[in-house]
């Protein structure tokens, strides 16, 4: 488990994110101010075409979960949902390890049937997701997105929209969720129980989308997919992206 002993050590760690692995900075944000995300292509419009995301101030708490950043993987996933590369329209969507919940918010604004946005059941993290929902989702859509605290591998019955019974999901979103190998089995337990097995004729089958930054490590990613295949999952590698100068244009 990672722990940071002082604010100075956390500052050093945060400053290093831009130079690790020789990449463009792959994590963004500051818990002291809102992170702006400009929308270009959602079905439902919001004021100034911008979402404002609060990051959970988990310093001294569940800091090792790294939910207090906006990761490039989350930004890229959100952009693909905006552009219908990941088509959520009319779909039941679950996000695991959501952090600030950006892909879930974009899914809701792009006419998903319903969205459940979840992260570790820490009070600060869950309340932060509730804040971002209230801050960014119009009132007439608020009943389409539900915030839930969920520890992977535990009771999946809690992963449901408010006032409804649990039903498996058409789409599950996972951005930067594979970097903890000791959690792979628990994550797969949740996925195996939450992904629908029903497919409409000529439609995209129920799908889990993984977006992983290079900081996760190829060995760690390979370990997860080998383990998942032994449980009956089948995967396709769609694309590999290199983000240059914070550009997320597709």
UniProtKB/TrEMBL annotation:
InterPro entries: Methyltransf_16 (IPR019410), SAM-dependent_MTases_sf (IPR029063). It comes from the Eukaryota. One of its GO terms (cellular component) is cytoplasm. This is Protein N-terminal and lysine N-methyltransferase EFM7.
